[in-house]
Amino acid sequence: MSRKIAIVGAGYVGVPLAQVFAEAGQDVLLVDISPERVERINKGDSYIEDVPSSVLGRLVESGRVRATTDYDELKGVEAILIALPTPLSKQREPDLTIVMSAVEQIATRLQPGQMVVLESTTYPGTTRDRLRPLLEQGSGLEAGKDFFLAFSPERVDPGREDFTTKTTPKVVGGLDEISTKKVADLYRGAVDTVIEVSSPESAEMTKLLENIFRSVNIALVNELAQLCDRMGLDVWEIIEAAASKPFGFMKFVPGPGLGGHCIPIDPFYLTWKAREHNFSTEFIELAGKINESMPYFCRGKITRALNSQHKPIRGSKILVLGVAYKKDISDMRESPALKVIKLLLQQGALVSYHDPFVAELPEFELKSVELAPEDFDCVAVVTDHSEIDYEDVASRAKLVVDFRNATKAQAPREGKIWKL
Q1: Is 417 helix (H, G, I), strand (E, B) or coil?
Q2: I want to staple 316 with a disulfide (CB 3.0 to 4.6 A). Which of 133, 155, 377, 387 is the partner?
Q3: Which residues make Cβ contacts (< 8 Å) with residue 241, sequence separation at least 6?
Q4: Mean per-residue pLDDT pooled into runs of 10, the chain (420 residues)
Q5: Which one of 3.40.50.720, 3.90.76.10, 3.40.50.1240, 3.90.1170.20 gives the CATH number of domain 4-198?
């Protein structure tokens, strides 16, 4: 049975979600405040790498996907899914402004029988304590009786092909049993597996746990990498050796810092909420400190490598190789490369970058340059895109500082190749 579903937010979460529902035979309306985004979607022109224009164009042409800036069109849909950013403020506190502004628009148009689902990552209690009152006051309807409310966290990993929006299990926690059942049934019509939990708070905490788990374990290997650097040990060799154990160990790797929307941000949602309960999340906060320190460690490593060549960092020409937050995508959200570049510029370095996925960095007035490692005093591998020949880079460059083990075929040599 065909349903009409609205997704508020046409970004990294909303567009892949629209694809999944549309390919399952549902009619999807994407609502976004950006006229430019809406126009591109309605032309079948995708700006989301995980949804090629060929796929989006086919879905738009079939009438399954359409975009609008008009919130009034929400009145005619069965379900409204909210997939909007939840950034942190400058004080590292949750900023729900974007989500709550959208909820205000939804509330005045909410119809009896509709489902409302929040997918945006947030702290436990948001759906019940923030969305429910606003929706009820704005609509005059009662949650669980006149409309149905739930939280179902997005689990998008941009660029990943083995697990997609369709194949990654979907967690659903409703305000009550009927809300959970209705929303779970909605998702079962499009995704392979749905996991029902007892409440929206459980679903909200589930998403935070997933990303905190990664943050803490990445912090562990980042700290170990710094220690190994002082001890003259190869952290990459040690990690690979430990990973040979078939049980009791899960492989995580160090790097120049955390990127993307989730892992650098989500843990702070819980540390903020924990203070309300007079609880200090010391483990989580320590992991955050370690991960945030990595760009500084990277700058120090580059400085030492240049010093070994009798060159000061000031005035040295440095090529940052890869600036997206992870390999083989163009996503720049919270990319550690931006922090590394800023720190190098502050020290007087002459910084250029090469990235086949990112054409320009307006905040630094930089554009991606041709890959000519020999033209620079140092090449710093910050993001290890697959299409780059790192053996060739290592052979041509005067000095390489590799923060991703992209030059793993090359042995570390203090005169030429330095590794994290």
Answers
A1: strand
A2: 377
A3: none
A4: 88 96 97 98 96 97 97 97 91 90 98 97 96 98 97 89 93 98 98 98 97 95 96 95 96 92 82 92 93 96 96 98 95 94 98 97 97 98 96 95 91 78
A5: 3.40.50.720
